[in-house]
User: What shape does this take?
Amino acid sequence: MSVSFRSFTLSHLASAAVALWLCGAGAAWATGGGGEDAPSAQQALNIICSEVGMPANSCPQLPTAAQIAAEISALVNSQIDDVRNALLFGLSATPCGNLVFVTGIPCPEVAINAANGPVKSPPEGPLAISELSPLAFAPGATVKQYGDPAAKRFLYAAVIAGSDGQPQTLDLILDDTLDTNKQFSNGQVVAFSLPAVILKQNNSETAVTATLKLTATCNGAANCLTGTVTGIPGTSPLSAAQLGIQFDSSFGTSPNSSTSHKQYELQLPIVAIPENDGAYFATALKCPNGNGANALSGYCNAFFKPARGFPANVLGLGASIGIAPYAAPLCTSATCPTQGTAQTLYFGFCASFPGELGPAVATFIDIGTDGTTVVTTPVSTQKLQCPPPS
Assistant: This one.
């Protein structure tokens, strides 16, 4: 599968940036991550939110420039480097790209990204990763350009849509070319940190950082993994099935290595509703398929009915849980970092293996209004780390 992007109109992006300067945008706080010190980047995102039909109280407040770039990319259906290039150029101490100006550094020196359009696949079936673009990591979760021989682990992310085209689940595949042992050893295999949201009957959302631990319960080649989720306030450890999380592992070759090795796949339910994610359901413009269209890009929205995640009464009557489309984790006016602060910031998605120092994968994931999934990791991870395991 090849993903085709039509860049969002450059003049619109540039004029939005100029308007911010003319309006005397506020103090910088979106620091850390991406090698960027991005004054007023959140204000740029706020403008985009208003133009795509998201009220101010539902516009994601994000603590890093890397997340803000991903979020704008998702809301205007444009490549994330074009967003950094055009809109964030004047809002960054280390601008990248030469789409508008010729003085920027190459954007891959700021952050490395991967993007995949929505796919259709049986819910129980594996994605064909040969058709997808991964984010590549060297040991220690050091992000690398795809094709770099130092990269040994590869994260694939894409939305799986149903037969009606509505996004249903976020599918993640971790291709671990370092593990060439077909045998499992009894004990923990891999842990994932997941930025989930709990959706209540009144449509309020609560963000939680959950830890999914996949543990082998046997010695041998059989796939004998069990999934346990911790970190959800007010609960004892839950099974993955209680939260609608599906997982699997396999052993074989891949586009990344001709030597057989392990892969892990997660399927996570999606939470996106009009009350909290208005841009995904905007109807001011219409598409031939009957869906609404993005007010800025003109792309047809992938979402046309609420995606309420997985029903989980264990979290409260009528509650459900899943992954929201924004580039989690969020912050608030009280918790967003200020310029120069030493505050620690966290990645949204991480993966780690026992016996290794530090994580194996660390990234942010965002789902666009058109169903495109963007994965991005800053090259400089100063102040950024994976959440502590719960």
Summary: DSSP finds four helices and 25 strands in the chain. The chain has one domain: 10-384.
